[in-house]
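worker-3 :: picked uroporphyrinogen-III C-methyltransferase
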Amino acid sequence: MDDVGTVYLVGAGPGDPDLLTLRAARLLQGAEIVIHDGLVDPAVLALAPESAELVSVAKRRARHTLPQDAICDLLVREARKGRDVVRLKGGDPFIFGRGGEEAEACRIAGVPVEIVPGISAANGAAAAAQIALTHRDAASVVSFVAGQCKGLSEQNWAGLAGKGRTLVIYMGVKTAPQIAEKLMADGLAPDMPLAVIENACRPEMRVLRGPLAALPGLVARERVKSPALIVIGEVAARGDAFVAALAAEAAQ
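worker-3 :: tokens ->
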């Protein structure tokens, strides 16, 4: 096929446009068409030229603008028109972003594809809350899991969290009660520290802390909404609040 465009699977990072990679920003600024997820911040989309076509394929827990197969077909169809396609995804395309599925669809169709990594939601949220996902005194293992996966009660999460480990849960707001119950049933202590980070790297960001057993009540009481991440492990008791407490103690 002649004049086939390239599909760029671009990580939009956790929200703040200043956290885009240079490659991502340059692709956006020269974009002909941007096919974006719903969680991409408007300030990031504003980097695209006025002439660019912006197409939302937002997903919201069982309410999809387009099903995944249709998104893949859209990418291929637009590239076959000779257009370079910027497929913009929150965080990193290959961490719970279905980037693997879209890259495979392009390759099967003979459409060139390039992956442009982004700062993941986990890395961005942890940095904004000053929570080190690994720490010599607290954690040498990090695991990422999807909190809305099918068959949550059947998943074996034993060993993913506990002493010396950090567990980061994506998409876990709606299933917070089941997550807490599941982790405690798999042996995690009810008083294990956790942090819920809502709207990371944005002006309205909140960091809420508590023990594992209190997770369902915390989410309900504070009316936590997506996007939000749950960080579970000893490192969650550190971060910005921990440093502030140490500074206050030192000042006495």
